[in-house]
Amino acid sequence: MAQILAPTSQWQMRITKGSTTASPMTAKMWSSLLLKQNKRGPTKSSAKFRVLAVKSEGYTINRLEGLLNLDLTPFTDRIIAEYIWIGGSGVDVRSKSRTISKPVEHPSELPKWNYDGSSTGQAPGEDSEVILYPQAIFKDPFRGGNNILVICDAYTPQGEPIPTNKRARAAEIFANQKVIDEVPWYGIEQEYTLLQTDVKWPLGWPVGGYPGPQGPYYCGAGADKSFGRDISDAHYKACLYAGINISGTNGEVMPGQWEYQVGPSVGIEAGDHIWASRYILERITEQAGVVLTLDPKPIEGDWNGAGCHTNYSTKSMREEGGFEVIKKAILNLSLRHTDHIGAYGEGNERRLTGKHETASINTFSWGVANRGCSIRVGRETEKQGKGYLEDRRPASNMDPYIVTSLLAETTLLWEPTLEAEALAAQKLALNV
C-alpha cells in the first residue's frame, strides 16, 4: 500500500574511524545523544561524527522536511497563494504560487494573474497570455498556516472567457433569478482509480494480471481487498482542513478504485469544491508516488467503470408535492438526453453500456432504486413524496461546472414544446 507522507525522520550516525556498520536512529535518539555529548564537554574533533541520509523502505530520508513544515505565521504577515486553473484538456489541473502581502478572506482581495497559455494548449505562441481571475479560496493543507489554495477561471486579455472556462457560463446560469429562488442543491459522488506509477495498472493488481472477480472489494477491508486506503483517508482529512464540503468516502466495486462525496453544495459552489478536491487528490497521489486517473473505464472487460453521479434537488422538489416536480424535471431531462450525454465527459460511451450498474448511453430511463437507469430516485423520496434525483450518467472526468449548470438549466429554465412534452410523457410511462 502506498505511503502518503514522508516517513518519520531516521538518522544514521557513523563513526568515521574504523567503523563499517551503521545503525538507524530516530530524531529523538539523535537529540538525546547530542545532549549527552554536550555534558561530556567539547569534542576534540568536530569531524568525529557525520550525519548521513539513508534509505528506508525504498524512500530516501527527506532532510527538507523541517523546512517544508515551517509555520511562517509568527514571522511574517505574508502568505503563499497557490493559483489553480483547469488546463487545455479540460480535465488537468495546473497551478503556480505567488506571495501575497497579508492574509485574505475573499477572492476579491487577490490580484488577477496570468500564465503562458501556449504551454497548456490554451493559447497560440504569438499571443500566449491568459489571465487568471480568482474565484474561490480554500485553506492550503500542504503549507498550512494562513496559506491558501485559489480556484481561478481563465480569460483573454480582453476579458473574454477562453473555451475551456466553463465556470463563466455556469455562473451566468446560477445568477438567473429563477435558479436563485429554487436554491439548487448538489451532492456529487466523485469516483477515481489509482494506478501503479511505472506500469499504469491499478493499485494492488498483479502486474500484467488480474485480481479475483468483483464482489469483496466494495467498502471492503483487508490487505487483499483494500488498495489505497491511506490515500483516501489523507485526502478526506486534507479536504476537511481546506474547507471543502466533503461528506464521505468509500472503497469502490473495482479494486484500486475509490469514491468520495462532496455536498450538499449550492449552485456554483459545487463546481468550485469538486475542482479544489481534485487538485488536492492530485497532490496527495503525487506525494505517494501513485498515478490518479479519472478515466471512466480504466480497465476494459468485466469491471465497473468510474462515474461522477450527481444528486440534485431544488426547493420545490424538497417541499410537499416535490415528487411531481421531480417527475417533471425527469421529463425535461429525457428530452435533452443527447445534449447532456455530449457534455458529461470524454469516453463515457465505454462506461455507459447497460452493464455494471449503468444505463445504455443511447437510451434514457428512470426508476426508483434502480442503479441501471439514467436517473435514479431513492425509495425514501418516493415514500416521502419529496426529495431529490440522482443523475447516474456523468463520467468521472466530467466538468462539474457543466453538469451542475446544465441540470439547473434543463429543469428550471428550459421549456419543451407541448407536443414534445406529451410524447416524452408517453415514453416515460412505458419505461416505468
UniProtKB/TrEMBL annotation:
Family annotation (SUPFAM superfamilies): Glutamine synthetase, N-terminal domain (SSF54368), Glutamine synthetase/guanido kinase (SSF55931)
UniProt GO molecular function: ATP binding; glutamine synthetase activity
EC number: 6.3.1.2
Alphabetical list of SMART domains matching this protein: Gln-synt_C
Residue ranges constituting the GS beta-grasp domain according to the UniProt record: 79-159
Pfam family, one: Gln-synt_N
Domain annotation GS catalytic: ranges: 163-432
Subunit text: Homooctamer.
PANTHER family given in the database record: GLUTAMINE SYNTHETASE, GLUTAMINE SYNTHETASE, CHLOROPLASTIC_MITOCHONDRIAL
Protein name, per record: Glutamine synthetase
